[in-house]
Structure formats: C-alpha cells, structure tokens
Probable membrane transporter protein
Amino acid sequence: MTPLAMLGGLLIGVVIGAISGLIGIGGGAFLIPALTFFYGMSQKRAQGTSVATILLPIGIFVFLTYYKAGHVDVKLAMLIGVGFAIGGWFGGAWAQHLPDIVLRRGFVVLLVLLAAKLAFGQ
C-alpha cells in the first residue's frame, strides 16, 4: 500500500469515526461506499474491512465517552453484542455465497429504507 493510500485510509477513518461518534450511526454506512469508491474494493472486501475496523479500536473509545456521560445501557448492550456476534457469524458466512451485486443492492435498499424511516417516521 502506498503512503498516500495509507494516509487516505487514516483520513477516512477519522472522518467516519467523527460522524459515527457524533450521530451514533455505524461507520459501515459511510465506510463501505468509501472503500468501494476510493479503493476500488469489491463489496465483500469492503464489508470485511469495515467489520475489521470495529473489533476494538473504535468501539472502546466511543463506548467510554458515552459511558462516562451515563448514556449506555450496559446490560442491553451486552445482550445485543452476543446476538450481534451470533448473527454476524451467520450473516458473514451467508454473504460469502452471494454475488457482490446482490450484497451491494441489498445494502442500498437498507440505507434508503432507513433514511426514509428517519426522515418521515416518528
């Protein structure tokens, strides 16, 4: 990887991390399109790279900030975390058998539905 690509990756991480911490959205909503556009990654490679970024370095600092402010339900987060791990394992395995175009379109549909719900829902 070139130094410019490395710097770009760090910059993308800082920007997406700031947005994620600010509005509480998972960084993948921004990171996956950035990886496919700026780095030419396939959908699967972008998804795998996105998941790798949340393993520890991001989550711990964002969590601590919200926890110190009293904005974390630890018990619920632990239950969701266990479910996320189980679901992630199944979803990750399933994704390996789907074409990139199916994953990309599913990703787009999910983002559009979530955006519509946020914009027009209560």
